[in-house]
Write a structure and sequence with these properties.
The protein is mainly α and about 140 residues long. It is about 65% helix and about 0% strand.
């Protein structure tokens, strides 16, 4: 099994959640393998990869607690805005960051916030990164 650091696991969590959002008929295990075996793209036969426990924790946590996460995030949107108006990558990063901030015993809230901003830097634009920082920082202060 490849060794994944926490940052790579968070990237994979984002990618799995994004994949599931885009293709809701996809099985969770298939989404994991699609993301975790990307480096085997050219291989004739793909070798399945064991899903790291922290990745499963993040993905299952976000999917199982999506309604509660959305309810917690909604008050921090601009007046008249709804989560459905947000770009999907931004919403997924917000959910992932908030879940980790509230539920991980391994990453302090400030670390989870910083990691969410790293994901935003990689998967969104500067304006979205500022928005994500503004929303999630409210939960660090709380």
């Amino acid at each position: 099994m490849p060794n994944f650091n926490r940052h790579q696991i968070r990237q994979a969590a984002f990618q799995v959640l994004f994949t599931l959002n885009a293709n809701q008929s996809l099985e969770l295990e298939d989404a994991y393998q699609a993301v975790l075996t990307m480096d085997q793209f050219d291989a004739e036969e793909v070798t399945p990869v064991e899903v790291p426990a922290y990745l499963a924790f993040l993905v299952s946590g976000v999917t199982e607690n999506q309604a509660a996460l959305d309810a917690a995030l909604t008050p921090y949107l601009k007046k008249g805005w709804q989560l459905s108006r947000l770009a999907k990558p931004d919403l997924i990063i917000l959910r992932l960051g908030l879940f980790e901030m509230q539920n991980s015993t391994e990453a302090p809230a400030k670390v989870a916030l910083n990691e969410a901003l790293e994901l935003a830097k990689q998967f969104t634009d500067d304006q979205a990164k500022g928005f994500i920082n503004g929303v999630l920082s409210k939960f660090v202060e709380a």
